[in-house]
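To whoever is on call:

I kicked off a structure prediction for a single chain this morning and the downstream step that reads the tokens threw a length-mismatch warning. I double-checked the sequence; it's 267 residues and nothing unusual in it as far as I can see. Pasting both halves so you can look.
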Amino acid sequence: MHSTASDGRLSPEEVIVLAHEKGLELVALTDHDTTSGLDEAKKAAFSLGIQFVLGCEVSSKALGTEVHLLAYGFEKENAGLNSFLLTQQERRNDRAAEFVFRLKKTGDLPAHSSLPPPEVGRSIARPHIAKLLMEAGTVSEFSEAFQRFLTPGCKHFVPKPLPDGRDVVDVVHAAGGVVVLAHPGHQMPHRVVLQLIEAGLDGIEVVHPSHDEGLEIYYRDLAFQHSKLVTGGSDFHGQPKHGGMTLGDYWIKPGPEILNMALKSTP
């Protein structure tokens, strides 16, 4: 799940309240390259009797392919992890500023358009730029912003600087956490998954809105073959055009490893 700490629409507390309304009993907040929403979400979860796992979604690459890695159950105050995430956030912010600069230069954004002010822990992402494009009237829908301006191949696209997935695995492991490959879907080359497994990947996200029944079976079997964790979730952003309103529709029965991670974050 994602909140306003990165590219979600709801605050961390609001996400947890909605999860409670949907009947979820164990959740993780996994904002992009930041842990800044975890304290608020954890407090809300325990006040509502929901088990909570510390999480974060880290953008990285493997064999030249962008991959998203879910970090779970880490020590939130770990210096190495926090330094790594701060670098990630700075790279995201610089990239977003370059997007805005290019779009202003072409007239697709007016001169007064501005991103949210820089804050320690805030993760700026492409949805923030899509919102600016909608506010400017350049596009009418969130998806149009991505199709015309924010995906690879677009004229003024700004590539994302990405760390190697093996480095992400090492950093998260050093912080006492586990690493799960997020939403591999139909487009993830098998060789990429195998390299990540060799690098120490701990699990695979099997249940996801983009996975049909066949993919769920495929990745569940792959995880079983390599003795990896099986996870799942909604990838909820609170945006109809970005992840949809899927909270509560996609879930998985947690295994003992996930339950132990929830216990680690108990006050």
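Update from on-call: the warning came from a stale cache, not from the record. Cleared it. Sanity check on the structure: Strands lie at 26-29, 51-62, 65-72, 178-181, 203-207, 229-232.
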